[in-house]
Write a structure and sequence with these properties.
170 residues; mainly alpha; 71% helix
Length: 170
């Protein structure tokens, strides 16, 4: 059995006159001053600019990605002694096509021999690659097939490095 507590009339009147707690309105997330809006606008502009720069660079380097895909296909020919001659000739063609995509045709198309080797050296430090290509251009198929695997691996590695890292002046 519960006991009911009798309150005096003053307490009952005070309890009846109580109201709920007044809660303030929620704080707005919108900036209260124009400085925050300006900072937000500058951040959006900076982000859009960074995205545009990245997109331009990505499109500008599309020829490098395509050349690397082609190099992967040529690499299997170079590793096979029976098809190494074909692979090396395709590699020299690929390097020339890559250079044609990077620089004006008038600067690259007519360059051959020693001038082509110098062009490779100047554009990306392809010293070992240039020596290998200069030496292999004039060998017959039997001599190219007799190359040791480490020199062909080095040729592919140096070619890949040159494609990725050659410097194109703006």
């Amino acid at each position: 059995m519960e006991q009911t507590v009798q309150l005096d009339p003053m307490t009952q009147t005070a309890l009846r006159s109580l109201h709920d707690i007044a809660v303030p309105p929620p704080v707005s997330w919108l900036p209260q001053t124009w400085g925050w809006a300006a900072l937000g606008a500058l951040l959006v502009i900076a982000l859009l600019s960074a995205i545009l720069v990245w997109l331009r660079r990505y499109r500008r380097n599309a020829y490098r990605r395509e050349a690397l895909r082609m190099l992967a296909a040529i690499e299997t020919d170079i590793r096979n002694p029976a098809r190494r001659d074909k692979g090396i000739h395709e590699l020299t063609e690929l390097l020339k096509r890559t250079a044609l995509a990077a620089w004006p045709r008038s600067d690259v198309a007519s360059v051959t021999g020693r001038a082509w080797i110098e062009r490779l050296n100047q554009s990306g430090g392809a010293g070992a690659l240039a020596r290998l290509l200069d030496d292999l251009e004039y060998h017959d198929s039997a001599a190219i097939a007799a190359l040791p695997p480490d020199s062909t691996d080095e040729l592919v590695l140096k070619s890949r490095r040159w494609i990725r890292g050659h410097h194109v002046s703006a």
